[in-house]
């Protein structure tokens, strides 16, 4: 069964939030062809030390039955 990028993204967001990650995301609201998710574990120690590392997940739907997922790390908010 094919799944679109926004539906898969929402499932990933729910999973991360259930596991106590702080999550920021952006969707293509018109065409629903892509989504970008950032997640990080927030804590006082990470904030005090300036740790801004985050998990980045990008999802793109190119064709009706194809969803590309890219996973990497980056700075929170960038």
List the helices and strands and how they pair.
Elements: H1 5-18, E1 22-27, E2 34-40, H2 44-48, E3 53-63, E4 66-75
Antiparallel strand pairs: 1-2, 2-3, 3-4
How does this structure look, described?
This protein has about 80 residues and is an alpha+beta fold. About 25% of the residues lie in helices and about 45% in strands. The chain has two helices and four strands. It has helices at about 5-20, 45-50, and strands at about 20-25, 35-40, 55-65, 65-75. A four-stranded antiparallel sheet has the order 1-2-3-4, covered by helices on one side. It is elongated and about 45 Å long. The model has no long low-confidence stretch (mean pLDDT about 85).
Question: Could you provide a short overview of the structure?
Answer:
With 78 residues, this protein is an alpha+beta fold. The longest helix has 14 residues. It contains two helices and four strands.
């Amino acid at each position: 069964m094919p799944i679109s990028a926004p539906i898969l993204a929402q499932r990933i967001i729910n999973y991360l939030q259930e596991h106590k990650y702080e999550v920021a995301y952006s969707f293509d609201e018109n065409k629903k062809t892509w989504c970008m998710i950032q997640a990080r574990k927030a804590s006082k120690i990470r904030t005090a030390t300036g740790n801004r590392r985050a998990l980045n997940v990008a999802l793109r739907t190119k064709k009706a039955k194809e969803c590309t997922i890219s996973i990497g790390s980056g700075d929170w908010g960038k």
